[in-house]
Design a protein that fits this description.
The protein is built from seven helices and seven strands. By secondary structure, the chain is of the alpha/beta class. The chain has a domain of 145 residues: Rossmann fold, CATH 3.40.50. Strand 1, helix 3 and strand 2 form a beta-alpha-beta unit. Bound molecules: S-adenosyl-L-homocysteine and magnesium ion. It comes from Actinacidiphila rubida.
Length: 215
């Protein structure tokens, strides 16, 4: 675990350690707990793999995998001129963002390549192809309402009963950040299909109850 945490702290990205530990604990519980043992984990929003390595460590312990989905072109706020832009992540050959090489370096450094399936694509397109029930879905992709709602609608129905929905960047107060992740978190609770398990910083962990999910 020390190696994994060192790799997490060395990776590019913005997730603080306390939220990372909460994410790791949720992934451990989802993959090893009685409700969804051995089912895969799914992440929307790979970026440079900072959160992926925590999910991969949990997957390794449980003999399963984490599937991580990203088009690797960055979100709105990561584009040139925006607050979260990192010029070192621009591909000089194309002049556009490409976080895939840095993600692969992160995973290699952490020694976790075997436990991760990386899908390069848009979250709704990948979700439409997906059938397998999931132990946990971690939503940390695009933060517009359009993207956040599409992530929720595409992936939340695939969470197995007893599995977890984890949403990052949930800010109930608009002064702290954008509201789209908060709105899908509310949407999940208001559906009646999910109940809150824990909150750490902007990370919310919800558990899927029995019955179908009305979108
Ligand atoms: N989970 C990462 C951070 C993810 S940042 C960490 O904790 O380090 C958000 C990522 O979502 C960006 O890399 C961006 O390219 C990706 N993204 C945004 N909208 C997307 C979409 N519709 N489909 C796939 N990836 C998307
Ligand atoms: Mg985030």
């Amino acid at each position: 675990m020390t190696d994994v945490l060192a790799a997490f702290e060395a990776a590019k990205g913005f997730m603080p350690l306390d939220e990372g530990l909460a994410l790791h604990a949720a992934a451990k519980e989802a993959t090893a707990g009685p409700a969804t043992p051995g089912l895969p984990l799914l992440e929307v929003g790979t970026y440079c793999g900072r959160s992926t390595i925590l999910l991969a460590d949990a997957a390794r312990s449980a003999g399963t995998v984490v599937v991580t989905v990203d088009h690797h072109r960055g979100s709105e706020e990561q584009q040139p001129g925006w607050e979260y832009h990192d010029t070192s992540l621009v591909d000089p050959a194309t002049g556009v963002m490409d976080t895939l090489p840095e993600f692969r370096r992160t995973l290699h450094a952490a020694g976790l390549e075997e436990h991760v399936v990386a899908v390069v694509g848009r979250s709704p397109q990948v979700a439409r192809l997906w059938r397998q029930p999931l132990a946990m879905v971690f939503v940390d992709g695009g933060h517009t309402d359009e993207h956040a709602n599409a992530d929720y609608e595409g992936w939340a129905p695939l969470i197995a009963e007893g599995g977890l929905l984890v949403v990052h960047d949930v800010f109930p107060d608009p002064a702290d950040g954008g509201q789209a992740p908060y709105r899908i978190y509310r949407r999940a609770l208001d559906s009646g299909a999910f109940a809150e398990e824990s909150a750490t910083g902007s990370l919310r962990v919800l558990r899927r109850g029995p019955g179908s999910l009305a979108l």
